[in-house]
Amino acid sequence: MPITLPDLKDWTFSVDFEGIAWAIIDRQGESMNSLGRSAIEELGEIVEALEQAQAGEVKGLVLMSGKDSGFIAGADIREFKGFDTEETVKEVVKQTIELFDRIEALPMPVVVAIHGYCLGGGLELALACDWRIADREEGTRLGFPEVKLGIFPGLNGTVRAIRVAGPMDAMTAMLTGRMLRPGAARAMGLVDQLVPTRHNLRWAARKAVLQKRRSKGAPWWKKLMAKQPVRGMLAKQMRAKTAEKVREDHYPAPFRLIDLFELHGDDLAAMKRAETEMFAPLMASETSRNLRRVFGLSEMLKDAAPKNGFRPRKVHVIGAGTMGADIAAWCVVSGMQASLQDLDQGQIEKGIHRAKKLFKKRLRGKTAFDSGVARLIADPGGKQIKHADVIIEAIIEKLDVKQKLFADLETKAKPGAVLATNTSSLKLEDIAKPLKDPGRLVGLHFFNPVAQLPLVEVVHGEGTREEEVGKACRFVTAINKLPLVVKSCSGFLVNRVLAPYMMEAVRLYQDGQPREKIDQAALKFGMPMGPMELMDMVGLDICNKVGEELNLAPKTDGASDNVLASLVNQGKLGKKTGEGFYVWEDGKPKRDAEATFDDAELARLGRELVQPLLDETARAEADGIVKDADHVDAGVIFGTGFAPFRGGPLHYRKSQDANAAGKAAA
Amino acid sequence: MTQMPMRRVAVLGGTRIPFCRSHTAYAELSNLDMLTAALCGLADRFGLAGAHIDEVVGGAVITHAKDWNLAREAVIGSSLARTTPGITMMQACGTSLQAALGLAAKIATGQIESGIAMGSDTTSDAPIVFQKKFAKRLVKASRAKSLGQRVGAFKGMAPGELAPLPPDTREPRTGLGMGEHCELMAKEWGISRQDQDILAFESHCKAAAAYDEGFMDDLVVPNAGLFRDNNIREDASLEKLAELKPVFDKSGGTITAGNSTPLTDGAATVLLASEKWAKSKEIPIQAYLTLGRTSAVDYVEGEGLLMAPTVAVSELLDQAGLALQEFDYYEIHEAFAAQVLATLKAWESEAYCRDRLGRNAPLGTIDQAKMNVKGSSIAFGHPFAATGARILSVLAKLLHSGCGQRGLISVCTAGGMGVAAILEGVEAQGTGGSEAKEMGAA
């Protein structure tokens, strides 16, 4: 009797005339495969059928994907919602772990053929197979992104990765969460064989089955690294390296993974058991839940962009100041053509010079760099305006100048091109007034430094058409940033909530708190950078102006200026002048190395520092300047770096309130 | 067998990737990569992802032995249906134009409904092979049955045999490069350095203007991070061109790097179809390919190597019953400025037209304002096999824009051959009615 499994929904299964079984994952109703409950259960049925097959009936099993988007992008994060106790986590992973063990124990060779994404749980499944083949196509990536979600591989991927790649490579891949290109994955040993295109996969897999190929695992010299005393030294080094990136009190997952390795690195059976024990508390922790929430928020922001239709390729930026030039450079890095217009040829040249530094880092190899340079066009005469799909204005904040510019642009831009202003202080509606079609103008508010900050506020003026907002969002996702649609209002969302936080820092400083302490308190809370350093980077003149405009500048008792205004008056504007709150040398602030502070006091001060931000966030939500509370949280996290492991300011407030209520009740 | 009535052959438009000077942006790419990218661009433009095309025909001049099935491989790698056959063929620089003529004949006679002509070339990824003597040893060794035989295959081998042979674009029978041949033509026809430089200068200006006005927007799809050809010099000047030293004849020559085409990497495609097919896909017809002709000259006995287009055009005009002046556009491929100018001079020469072309009157002068109006190969670059498809796309779009109704193409190729073709606008054909010439490819 031939084996048939006609009722599968997420997989198709067939055995061909040569006796090779093909299991193709193609999850129903999904654009990308994930390892959800139903996909796992159906895979269980397939494995069961093969376990019961007569000897010799099936020569081997091949796992592949039926989707162009890739193999398996990981576990189905939507299903993580119920994982709030260690027991449920353990129970759920146990079933999958057993299934993977059964795949490993199948008598026939099991080959996986990978195109596109093979991440997280998908890679753990691949590692349970006997032979892994990947194609070298552009979009193929393998990796363990788990640490970014506050966990580590929990389906025995830690054990199997170390088995095939050795401890150094495997741990590095799991600790960094890096997406590996096929070549790198092959070099590490995560993949056994590479083929040039996805069309070769089927045939390479067939051959591997017929030849009964089995991965040999890491070579002896790699395995040596798992023995003591080398392992202890490695673990120590990994801890130090990880601590440079994240704090253990905020992000425990990588540190637990290192513990796991240090304890059991040379006894894979013991490691297998211990993995679940250490994984479950992480998975059930608030940190991981919050990080999963943040991941969901980033996906939510991306969803604002329509998937089809508008395809921006050419961008024209007017105003070659820092912001304008950096926007153009970033567009080029993202593969677009960008033209840069300014009345001052020198500004354009400066911008291009800075762009080349960015290209050196981001566009590897001479040809990529040269093409990047060719894609950034100095265009003092605005010849590219009529070709541009997106036109961004980043000139001086003067209403009449901007109005004149857009009235002129409207006549020159091609139909369908997005017209956008990067203004942060003028009203979009005012700028749009002289346009024949004022509904066309949107705001695109970028943050400095453009290359580092993931958020762009897409400003929806009163008259702006939905379609134009959608196109602007599409552009933002096309340059690999996250779009947050905000109503046209003073400070939009990000600056509005940042300003009171920074002014609170100024107030604390004025009241005698050391600047180092304020900054450390912010880091302790989980901010990516202290506010004093941040203000120095932004420029104290700008901070002072914003503070005054929003009427937030700290009050002083008498006639004297507040400390911020007086620094500005002394010409101490921060990093750009070499001194602000700190003295800056070689692009770094000089800190008092002696200054150490009590941990509990830092935690207290951190909360005090952040309180005005939280309050303002709540007001912003009440004012409805973005769609809903989740969008507020998303905007503040990606726009200010607000402690991701806390899940966002509103979420944090709510959980604080709940905690307080819980304590009161107890 | 039933004979179908002749049908008109529609040119629906072409798409290419930007052309690059060799060893620049495409240094890492192969012909297959570039052809695939150009095909994907074409499929994208005309919504042909997953669509079956009856025949895709084309090839490359400088090609690896492993690319023996280049056209079919490119089809498989593209977004077209994998049931689309790909036929690899080559006629040097005339490759993709010749491919179009072949497809047109099949469309006209009802054998196929749709076809894509294409070509690609790279001198960045040129095949380097062993000398014949060493290659023979390798073949012998691979066929050997014993170790002794295998070792024996290398008996008496000299170290010099190991020196690889780079690809050679010189004419095998004359030992002269294309440039050296053209230098001879320039001398024979008295083509001045200044006239060549002016032609080159104008080519760059016209090509730059074509990009500026957006004419190239739908003809070129970005590839490998590049949005436009990297050979066009917007800042070209006659002074700078005049400063360049002759390349092929250092003492008395006139041909420089500035007034000839650079070595170029790139690929181009053009979509042809029956009117029925175009209608079913709702793709507007840009022009009709009405006639084509390939001719050759006897350069072995001393004729100018690149003079064959003079013959091909003359014969084509006879077939069409048209005078050389009855065209709105002339697309004369600029292998070298001197080649174009020598061709024009030959058509004006009473003696040449009488003695070589067998005409009792010269073909005459053409209005140079109608020639290569969007620039040509000196500016865009010339990836040999891709040029025909590039020119077809440009001319079809020109005719579609409605400023003219008839265009003439001529391309010179290695081996003393020339390919010529006539494109007609939709209006000329539409009003021409039954009188319209049916297709008859040479």
Question: What is the number of strand segments of chain B?
Answer: 10
User: What percent of residues of chain B are in strands?
Assistant: 15-25%
Largest sheet of chain B: 10 strands, mixed
Low-confidence stretches of chain B: 431-442
> SS-based structural class of chain A?
alpha/beta
Total strands of chain A: the figure is 20
Tally of separate helices of chain B: 15
Mean pLDDT of chain A: 93
Helix content of chain B: 25-40%
User: How much helix, percentage-wise, in residues of chain A?
Assistant: 40-55%
Oligomer: heterodimer
Biggest chain contact: A-B, 18 and 16 residues
Secondary structure: elements and pairs:
The complex is a heterodimer of chains A (about 675) and B (about 450).
Chain A: E1 11-15, E2 20-25, H1 37-52, E3 60-65, E4 70-72, H2 86-105, E5 110-114, E6 117-119, H3 121-127, E7 131-135, E8 141-143, H4 157-176, E9 179-180, H5 182-188, E10 193-195, H6 201-210, H7 220-223, H8 230-245, H9 253-264, H10 268-284, H11 286-302, E11 314-318, H12 322-333, E12 337-341, H13 345-362, H14 366-375, E13 376-378, E14 390-393, H15 399-412, E15 418-421, H16 428-432, E16 441-445, E17 455-460, H17 466-478, E18 482-487, H18 494-510, H19 515-525, H20 531-538, H21 540-549, H22 563-569, E19 584-585, E20 588-589, H23 599-623, H24 629-640, H25 649-665
Parallel strand pairs in A: 2-3, 3-5, 4-6, 5-7, 6-8, 7-10, 11-12, 11-14, 12-13, 14-15, 15-16, 17-18
Antiparallel strand pairs in A: 1-2, 8-9, 16-17, 19-20
Helix pairs in contact in A: 1-2, 2-10, 3-4, 4-9, 4-10, 8-9, 9-10, 11-24, 12-13, 18-23, 19-23, 21-22
Chain B: E1 9-16, E2 20-21, H1 31-46, E3 55-60, H2 70-77, E4 86-88, H3 95-108, E5 114-121, H4 132-143, H5 147-152, H6 178-189, H7 193-212, H8 238-243, E6 264-274, H9 275-280, E7 287-296, H10 308-320, E8 329-332, H11 337-348, H12 350-355, H13 377-380, H14 387-400, E9 406-413, E10 417-425, H15 426-432
Parallel strand pairs in B: 3-4, 3-5, 8-9
Antiparallel strand pairs in B: 1-6, 1-7, 2-6, 5-6, 7-10, 9-10
Helix pairs in contact in B: 1-2, 3-14, 6-11
